[in-house]
Design goal:
Strand content: 15-25%
GO molecular function, one term: oxidoreductase activity
Radius of gyration: 21 Å
CATH class of the largest domain: Alpha Beta
Keywords: NAD, Oxidoreductase, Pyruvate
Mean pLDDT: 94
Strand order of the largest sheet: 8-7-6-9-10-11-12
Structural class: alpha/beta
CATH topology of the largest domain: Rossmann fold
CATH superfamily of the largest domain: NAD(P)-binding Rossmann-like Domain
Protein name: Glyoxylate/hydroxypyruvate reductase A
Pfam family, one: 2-Hacid_dh_C
Number of domains: 2
InterPro entries: D-isomer_DH_NAD-bd, NAD(P)-bd_dom_sf
Helix content: 25-40%
């Protein structure tokens, strides 16, 4: 029963080392160096692995996605009978929550304006609204979205969330479905996007979408924060909105094409905070324990947790 670590752009060694520690005696391999013929591989730990890899794994039982989403996997694999397991881990959730809260606070506490004043050696305090007067909206209320919503609510922000289906979260106003999307946007000063990438959410956030955000808020204009998936936003529309005043500012961790091209206008926009897709890094130490436990449960006849529904893509 071989386990293959198939990652692109990452060093597979830490994953192999930790999986061997948690499943001693198992045959743990790294793609592409020692994948072998593929016929004896039962499990794949994948991040941006190519489609041709999976086509040669005739004995494959489970695919474990090494990221919060599964859109990095070849689409064909989600329509086979092989289960794809999402990562739902406290460490990853905590990392995402930290990043989201940090970005909301940076905009709330006017970090960009103070950074500009620092460059000018200008000492001037700015009027500061209270958290209770700022309306944050979370797009996507899965595990990550719910954790971020609760953390922001605990700081006093007026938090709401939107999802395709109805959710109930204490202290968070919940909107659901297309019928309630506009109402959700109209009450939102800071929009946090944590949607997965599916056929329905691809290019979901466009210019018209951003134009529906609240314009009467305490921050003087709406802010967009994206740590979900880059392809859920139309980047040319986002750049226009940041230029013409439709958006006051943005924090972006994800982009449709990564790494971000050097000529991309986002790099030089004074009202944009960029990070290189690090909001919720996948930690081999933490996630290997999660995956090892799933494998042992599965082999003992138990059910896998957090299996992706091929119909929804999450």
């Amino acid at each position: 029963m071989a386990i293959l670590v198939a990652v692109k752009g990452w060093d597979p060694a830490p994953w192999v080392e930790r999986m061997r520690a948690r499943l001693p005696g198992r045959d743990i391999r790294a793609w592409p160096e020692d994948a072998g013929s593929g016929g004896d591989i039962d499990y794949v730990l994948a991040w941006k692995a190519p489609a041709e890899l999976f086509s040669g794994l005739g004995n494959l039982k489970v695919i474990f996605s090494l990221g919060a989403g599964v859109d990095h996997l070849p689409p064909v694999d989600r329509h086979q009978d092989i289960p794809v397991v999402r990562v739902v881990d406290p460490d990853l959730t905590d990392r995402m929550t930290e990043w989201v809260v940090m970005q909301v606070l940076l905009h709330h506490r006017q970090h960009l304006a103070y950074a500009a004043q620092q460059e000018q050696k200008r000492w001037r305090d700015l009027p500061q609204p209270a958290a209770k007067d700022v309306r944050v909206g979370i797009l996507g209320l899965g595990v990550l979205g719910q954790a971020s919503a609760l953390a922001l609510a605990s700081l006093g922000f007026k938090v709401a969330g939107w999802a395709r289906s109805r959710k109930q979260i204490t202290g968070v106003e919940c909107f659901a479905g297309n019928d309630q999307l506009d109402a959700f946007l109209r009450r939102t000063d800071i929009l946090v996007n944590l949607l997965p990438l599916t056929n329905e959410t691809r290019h979901f956030v466009d210019y018209a979408f951003l134009g529906k955000l609240a314009r009467d808020g305490a921050l003087g204009g709406p802010v967009f924060i994206n740590a979900g998936r880059g392809a859920t936003q139309v980047e040319s529309d986002l750049q226009l909105a940041l230029t013409d005043g439709t958006l006051k500012a943005a924090s972006l961790d994800v982009f449709e094409h990564e790494p971000l091209e050097s000529e991309n206008p986002f790099w030089v926009m004074k009202n944009v905070i960029l990070t290189p897709h690090i909001a919720a890094d996948s930690d081999p130490e933490s996630l290997s324990s999660y995956i090892a436990e799933q494998i042992m449960t599965f082999e003992a006849g138990g059910k896998l947790a957090n299996v992706v529904d091929p119909a929804t893509g999450y």
